[in-house]
Amino acid sequence: MTFLSLSFAAFAALVFAAWWGAPAKARPLVLAAANLVFALSLGLHALAALLAVSALSWAAGLWLARSPRKAALAVGCAGCLAPLLAYKYLALAAAALGWPGLFAGLAAPAGISFYTFKAVAYLAEVYKGCLRPEKSALHYFNYTGFFAQLASGPIQAPGSLLPQLAAPPRRFDRALALGGCVRLCWGLFLKKCLADPLAGYQGALAAPAHYYGLSVAWALLAFSLQLYFDFASYSQLAIGLANLLGFETGENFLSPYFSRSIGEFWRRWHISLSAWLRNYIYIPLGGSRRGKARLVLATMATFLVSGAWHGAAGGFLVWGALHGVYLLAGRLTRAARGRVWAALGQGEHSPLRSAVSWAFTLLLVFGAWLFFVTGTLPAARQALAALFSPFPFSVQYLKESITLLGFTPAILVRLGLFTALAALVDWLSRGVGFGAWAAAQRPWVQAALCYVCVFASLFFGAAGALPNIYFAF
Fold first, then answer.
1. Do 166 and 179 fall into the same domain?
2. Which of 73, 77, 307, 375 has most Cβ atoms within 10 angstroms of its Cβ?
3. pLDDT tens digit at each of 473 positions of the chain
4. Where are the alpha helices (DSSP H) in 311-430?
């Protein structure tokens, strides 16, 4: 049951009616029932894994309250992470030991990464004394199993979500619900009109030897846009659903492709995961407060963990390592770059400096996505060899490099217009986020945006809906 299916629309409508129709004291039970049904729709093993991680982390939180020691924290976190690590890496370990078929069919339950990270965050906050342990198993299950965030996040912090679940909203907030509806329309547009259509024009990344080198570049651009639109769409839908039930959730994406540095990119991309990595890996390892050696260690370890989480393949590790190197190189050269720009008479926010910094950042990010999408190092090498192969500078070559991927003039115009609309909204909302930007618009602007999104999705959107990319993680 995906967010854009008719079955989910009926499910969400029923949950919405039951939630606001039930007495305030009964609403946690309504939400728990909805969470159970949605988790079960993802498979019995998905429900079993969710219940196991929830029960273990809830019990570990109560234990930590009585015995706040590192050993108790380590045992609780290890128990929560064990299923995730088993699903992701048992097959790889078996292959390394010479039993390649032992766990070959083992598939991770949808959403296991996201509620596991929620559980670890909860235990860490209880251990640090920043959060009181949740005594109600019902409220805690609604935190880990919240259906709007179950499959792909956002990984809302326990200090933000748990208090709202323990004291559900008593009154319907029209402004918050309206914002949620606008988010739903925008998420629908991003998925149906951009993410899913772009998925069909990336053949050059899978078989680069059969395409022009420039075709590989176009395919990489299509994947980079698809990945962002796909995950931003899911985040908008998830936040919109939470808003309709009266819950507030922070932005998960903040116009990341308009960043002027890699550091800024990671403050804007998948914000909930970036915050989790910073709070529970980077800072505990020392961060930037214990000298340069610890800074390098913490940075590289954080991004290698991020890469390993995305997949047990060399391409993901290289992708993570590249971003670690990008950040460290940015820190190392910051002063020198500032002096060069100052010598050229360009201030920090000058148009030329901003444009160059933006273009260079985008080039680095898109280049790293090549390792992410290919997954394995041999596949990445083939794509890189094709990408950097000599090619003629001619209009005919440019045209054929595009048409080989399946693009037609009509498709290019349609995708170009839709991408321009998404880029415009991203640019206008880059400072405050989509939700705050949309809420600040006049009612007719909000209505017009919703009509455009729904109309475009119905008449120009992809038929059906592909699984979200981050379901795999």
1. no
2. 307
3. 788 989 999 999 999 999 999 998 999 999 999 999 999 999 898 899 999 999 999 999 999 988 878 888 999 999 999 988 888 777 566 555 555 555 556 677 888 999 999 999 999 999 998 999 999 999 999 999 999 999 888 999 999 999 999 888 888 999 999 999 999 999 999 999 999 999 999 999 999 988 999 999 999 999 999 999 999 999 999 999 999 999 999 999 999 999 999 999 999 999 999 999 999 999 999 887 878 889 999 999 999 999 988 877 889 999 999 999 999 999 999 999 999 999 888 888 899 999 999 999 999 999 999 999 998 899 999 999 998 888 888 899 999 999 999 999 999 999 999 999 999 999 999 999 999 999 999 999 999 999 999 999 999 998 877 888 887 77
4. 314-343, 351-374, 377-387, 395-403, 409-428
What is the Cα–Cα distance from 78 to 312, expressed in whole angstroms? 19
Q: Identify whether residues 140 and 279 lie together within a single domain.
A: no
Q: Does one domain contain both 148 and 87?
A: yes
Output the pTM of the full model. 0.94
- Asked if residue 194 and residue 143 are part of one domain, the reply reads no
Q: Assess whether 120 and 82 both reside in one domain.
A: yes
Task: Specify whether the CB–CB gap between 434 and 425 falls below 8 A.
Answer: yes
Q: Is the domain of 18 the same as that of 158? A: yes
How far, CA to CA in Å, does 196 sit from each of 61, 135, 376, 473? 41, 43, 24, 18
Residue with tokens 């550091």: 263
Final residue in a domain of this structure, among 375, 390, 406: 375
Which amino acid is present at 204?
A
The verdict on 365 and 303 lying in the same domain is yes
